Amino acid sequence: MTAGTSLYKRYETMPVSEILAENPGNYAIEANQVKSFHIKKGGVIYDGTDHLRNRPHELHIKWAGGKTIFKFSSMDDKEAKTLMQKVFRTVR
């Protein structure tokens, strides 16, 4: 049930070329292309129909190629922000 919660960690040490080759839709964003990023915290929301739903966190990245939004729930939003700050040290 929690098998996917740390799946992202396997990519931390994998060469970029290997990650890109895994799937034809994969792409890379170079650190010097990133203009800004922010994380929108997800959580449990009431959807107006007497149901609670989980809304994933969102990572918004503005970069030279446009704007990209990634949704995730496998990591805490604060942990993700810390990781992004390490990766993109020059981005504020």
Descriptive report:
With 92 residues, the protein is α+β, with helices and mostly antiparallel strands. The chain has one domain (3-87). It has two helices and five strands, in the order αβββββα. The strands form two sheets. Strands 1-4-5 form a three-stranded antiparallel beta sheet, with helices on one face. It is globular, with a radius of gyration of 15 Å.
Strand order of the largest sheet: 1-4-5
Share of helix among residues?
A: 10-25%
Give the averaged pLDDT, no decimals.
83
Low-pLDDT runs of 5+ residues are none
Q: Can you count the helices?
A: 2
Q: Note the quaternary state here.
A: single chain
Structural class: alpha+beta
Cα-atom radius of gyration = 15 Å
How many domains make up the coordinates?
A: 1
What distinguishing features does this structure have?
three-stranded antiparallel beta sheet; 92 residues; alpha+beta
Summed up:
This protein has 92 residues and is an alpha+beta fold. The chain has helices spanning 16-22, 77-87; strands at residues 34-40, 43-46, 52-55, 57-63, 66-72. It is globular, with a radius of gyration of 15 Å.
